[in-house]
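Per reviewer request, we include the raw input and output of the structure prediction for the construct analysed in the revised manuscript.
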Amino acid sequence: MARDAKKTVMMVSVLCSFLMLAGKGAAYFLTNSSALLADVAESLVHGLATGFAAFSLWYGARPADACHPYGHGRIKYISIGFEGTLVFLAAVAVMASGVVGLIRGPELRHLGPGLGIAGALAAVNLALGLALVRVGRRHGSMVIIANGRHVLADVWTTAAAIVGLGLVLLTGVDVLDPIAALLIGGYILIAGASLIRKSVAGLMDELDPALSARILERLDHGLRDRLICGYHKLRCRQLDDEIWIDVHLLLDGTLSMIEAHDRATRLETAVNALFPGEVVHITTHLEPEDHEAAHPGGHEDQRDPLAAPADANKQ
């Protein structure tokens, strides 16, 4: 059902991107506004990015195989980076159009109908963007969240264009139109850079402090309940709605293999419960409590999520 919901909202997003492009194109040809041209460029980029995002959701959902034992989810970070790059390039083009408008001087016309079209499209995009972010958060999909935020960014660019043209109507100062285009371009530039940053962080497996903190808290709870004697070498990463966790657990060396396995399974179940609705892959390595010889040089500080020590965790 989660995958059906993701497919549905992405299909709606793709269809709306065509509507936005056609409507904003019409508004631009009516008004000859640099600000609305900037909005058209942003919508063109969004349409291309939405198509690639929809493809990445389909491809990333394919199961693991012999060549891709961890699945195909990494393409989602590539999708976010692709979208960010397009947004960044669109921002450069938008700002260039604003500079040209300042140099040549705007030749505006039919501002009333153009503003009406732009306002209606902004309302549609606002509803769509909020729905995308809500569904993305509910199902833990970074691609849908990124797409929703891009739609909401599109709302702000349209709003900026509307404000710029509205001021032109009120004041008769045509130069406010290319100035609005420059402001829109700057905003899009920042949004594109943010998406690229997120893509690089994901591809490089950058640690999510909030994710590791939740896992550390649950492992510490297992210590307090004397389920385990300690833990270390914790590694975790999140790939869209999948979470991968590796940790070494220290247990009483006198336990039977059956009892040690049961305790590890109970702790894995408790960690799993932290992330309802998400796919959690946990790999635990069991060691006796006095297994110091296997780790010469001692253990690092337990609050480092990459290496929590056995000795500091003993109860």
